[in-house]
Amino acid sequence: MEEWEGEELEEHQYIAWVFNTNNGRVTLHFITIENEYGSLEQIQVQEDEAAAGSYFNPIALEDGDKSDDFPGLSRNGSIPNTKYIKDYKLNERRRIVSKTGDCNIQLYRVNRKRRRFIKDIFTTMVDIQWRYTLLTFVASFFISWLLFAVIWYIIAYVHGDFLQENLPDNQATSDWTPCIYAVYDFGSVFLFSVETQHTIGYGLRGSSHVCPEAIILECIQSVVGVIIQACMAGIVFAKLSRPKSRTITVMFSKNAVISKRNGHLYLLFRVGDLRTSHLLESHVRAQLVRKVKTDEGENIHFHQEELKVGTDLDGEDDRALILWPLTISHRIDSESPFWRMTPKDLLKSKFEIIVTLEGVIEATGNTTQARSSYLPSEILWNHRFDNMVSYAKKQGVYAVDCSSLNRLVPDNTPRLSAYQLEEIKRNRKASKISVQNKMKKLSLQKSSILHHSMIQSVKKLGGGDRMMTLLEVVSLLSHITVHRHNPY
Which of 27, 229, 240, 261 has a Cα-to-Cα distance from 36 of 20 to 30 A? Predict the structure, then answer.
């Protein structure tokens, strides 16, 4: 198991650091708090994989919901009390999109909601849970059997088939022709309804030619039975083949990182596909959800801002060929919302990054979308993702270690914002140009002094005009030489 050391933080806030070990199953949380002596302590809390979808964002709380209402701040001597962390997480404001891609959104006060859903009954049946679909499937058959059985019973009753002298045992002596052969009571009529709707045909019961209404009802029930079977079979097939289940085999890294690439800061996260049948026409998107205030004072609480992400080093192209897990990058430039964010500002921020992978399923041709999200506490500064692809010579294949999807290694990324790094570069460039200008000015001054001294020497020695012209030519050549070696 790799060891990981948490960095010292600048704020005494509760920060949930998520780190995945080599086996990809154990998740460690490091809770950083300030002790009674004023220094920072880190408490390690281990969480099982089943709770992976319930990560919480303590920093995204409102000011009134912070440490005063959290009993975990109490201490027993020098040991922090963490027994209330689980209860606190259950009562905590949850993320918009969970790690498994489920949206934590519920619509309220929808006008005529049931009527709207019933009008789109097919989509409603596909979207509801399996237990309700199967219940509807069984109920539709039983209700249709029962309904037609009642109608069959009424027809037979009106025709007189249930009179004592007209029962099947007495029909030979009374020479009676019933509407339905071999029916004694409602139970036998119900069995006839089932046999008619599903064309079972056991050979005991059947309709006769003496009741036209029975002939018409038999035709109607046969058609209705086929329609019910076709509709329910289509709904079950649509639920089995819908692309939502395909997203289960798409993996996102549990952490995003901020690292330096080619002199620029990048926000990075990983995405991979477990299946050998790849997604076609895959595209990656990322949206930042945060509170925004306009110049007019309007507060937009959940503003969605598109982040430019891609698989290239510069993060420009969003198309992805997922042969193995890819690292998706977002360049933090002047157009990025993270342009002026330092590590301290990042931990204080209140936002959620929602990432999606869209593609066409190769087997069915349906379009699917896998989702995940990252909170500020899940973005690690000055880290990068470790390599997880190697070549296995014995098998002759490129081996991908999926347990390394969340493996991070620290790097030397400065703990400065992209704006601060750009200012440092600009100042260095300006300083370099200033030094070059000073060197040029100094060279020109030296050349001018040398020229003046040579002229004075010639005058003292009584040189003529030809000598003065020669000195001017030498001075001009010296100026050209100085300008060629110092163009700035």
Answer: 27
Cβ pair 472, 448 in contact under 8 A: no
List the domain range (segments joined by +) for residue 211: 117-243
Burial of 167-183, coded b for 16+ CB within 10 Å and e otherwise, reads bbeebeeeebebbbebb
* pLDDT bracket for residue 281 (50, 70, 90): confident
* Contact predicate 224/235, CB 8 Å: no
Q: Where are the beta strands (DSSP E) in 219-295?
A: 250-252, 256-261, 264-273, 279-293
72: Cα separation from own chain's centroid:
31
For the question of whether the overall pTM of this predicted structure is more than 0.85, the answer is no
Q: How far is CA 314 from CA 261, 268, 305, in A?
A: 9, 11, 19
**C-alpha to C-alpha distances, 458 to 451, 454, 476, nearest whole angstrom:** 11, 6, 17
- The domain boundary, picked from 370, 387, 416, lies at 416
C-beta separation of 373 from 352 below 8 A? yes
- First-to-last alpha carbon distance for the chain, in angstroms, is 56
Are residues 276 and 383 part of one domain? yes
Question: End of a domain among 383, 416, 449?
Answer: 416
Let me know whether 156 and 93 are in one domain: no
Residues 468 and 338 in one domain: no
Structure confidence by residue, pLDDT tens digits, 231-266: 888 888 888 877 777 788 888 999 999 999 888 899
3-state DSSP call for residue 422?
Answer: helix
Rounded to 5, what percent of the chain is helix, strand, coil?
Answer: 40, 25, 35
Q: Check: CB of residue 177 under 8 Å from CB of residue 214.
A: no
Q: What is the pLDDT of residue 190?
A: 93
Q: Are residues 388 and 278 in the same domain?
A: yes
Quote the pLDDT of residue 141.
Answer: 93
Structural domain includes residue 199:
yes
Are 258 and 382 found together in one domain? yes
Q: How many domains does the chain have?
A: 3
- Separation CA 180–CA 149 (nearest Å): 12
DSSP, collapsed to helix, strand or coil, labels residue 383 as: strand
